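Hey, I was hoping to borrow your eyes for a little while. No rush at all, and the record is pasted right below:
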Amino acid sequence: MTEGTSYYDAIITKALELAESNDWQTTFDEFDILKTKWSEGPELEDEEWKTSKFAELTEAQKHFAERRKAHYEQVNERRTQNLQRREDMVKRLADLVDNKRWAQYTEVASLQRKFEDVRPLPVEAEEQTKRFEALLATFNEHKVEYLVKIRQREDDNMLIKLTIMEKIKQLAATLSEATKWPEADAELENLSDQWRKVGKVAKERSDEAWNAFKLVRDTYFEAKLSFDSKYRGELEKNKATRTELCEKAEALLTETDLAIAAKEMNLLHKRWKETGPTFREESEPLWERFKAASDKFNEVKHENLDVIRDSEQHNYEAKEKLCEKAEALSTGESKDHGHDVIESLFKEWNAIGPVPRRKNKKIWGRFKAAIDSYQQHRRSHFKQARLDQKDNLTKKRDIIEKLTALATQEPSEAMSTELKQLQQEFQAVGFVPIKQKEKIWQEYRAASDAVYKLVRSSEPQPAPRYIPQSARQSHSPEPRSEQKQKQSELFRLRKEVEAATETMLHYTDAITYIKPNKSGNLLRDDIQAKIDSAKVQIAEKQAEMDAIRKELDATN
């Protein structure tokens, strides 16, 4: 390499570096300097080599020029976009001014900061800035007037609130043992509502106003506490309830099953919120006690989250198995003792502890769907059974018609055989609707007795036997009036059995739709008690009916 070629190589190396530079203005000038140096360089014997190297210099300059052009195009595009962004801000400010939205001074301050921060901008942005500043000046001028009015309004509100509080003080001063508390309480609440509806006061006086309001209300309740024994009793009751909740919360700290304890703690918090107020001096200490137990439990809970999650997952798997058991019921053929089966499933469900909260709704929905499906199958089963009973009723009536027709014929030896055959057919027919059971049985007995008398009348009668008068008297048939009385009693009992049966079926169906939670379990227990009571009534009345039937049979 000669001294001349190294001179030009150095220029090319510098040109390649400049081609990647981001110093757009300086670099552009430096390329002109490089070209000047090139033209002032030494002569070379190999002009072809020098020409090719100059082409490299030209290409490097071209590459830089393209990059510089793309950069300024991007800058111009960004300037245009920024100009449009600021124009949107000008329109928003103009809208606020036109609509006299002087209360939006926080938004205007934000607009001002954003407007000033938008960069870069084209030359025409200067006119836009003037428009924005003019709108801003107009807004600020009216803002001052608005804030003065707001301050005056806040002072007026404070005066109104003080006036209302004075009325509450006067109300408290008039309380006595003769006070009609419903009217006094209603007046207090009315004044309190008025106080709350009054607009805002100055921010620096807000706490002062609220504390004064609480104090004046406390004055009322302290006077009420002195004169109203019922109110004192309510506070005593609430105090006892909250003390009990504290004790239960503290007891949960020793509970080994943390999943159940966590669920119970949530219920305790819910009950705490639902409990009414207690004595003012007792309220804060009780809350601090309850909160301390709750906080301590939460610490234990967070330290054992893995244990709780494992327990909840175990419970979830147990409930999944119970769902499978419930789902299998709907495919079974037997629908007897359906209520007992469902009750047993619900008891198993309730005995299982809590599951992960995110899965609780899903697993309960699956279990409920299985129970509903079983109930639907069971209803379909009994619906078919009722249809069969109606068919059986028709068959038994046909047999009764045959017995009635047989009773109109002349007595014969074959009549006894035909009677027995019809009786066997009647007994072979299955159940009939319960409402028709007693009636169809009485019709059957009457028709059979009529045929039986004909059969007896056709048989040879034994010689009459002397019966003493005293014996005749003791074996005389029961007076007709007593028979009618027993028939009426039998009818009454039958109606009562039907009503009790309907009640039992209604409650048996309803209990399956009650969700097994804390309140639901109480309702389920109440309904179950009614079902059990109805069963006892049905059994007792059926026993009475059987006894009356035996007495009637003995007199026929």
Q: What stands out?
A: Residues 463-478 have pLDDT under 50 and may be disordered. The radius of gyration is 50 Å. The chain has 18 helices and no strands. Residues 47-98 form the longest helix (52 residues).
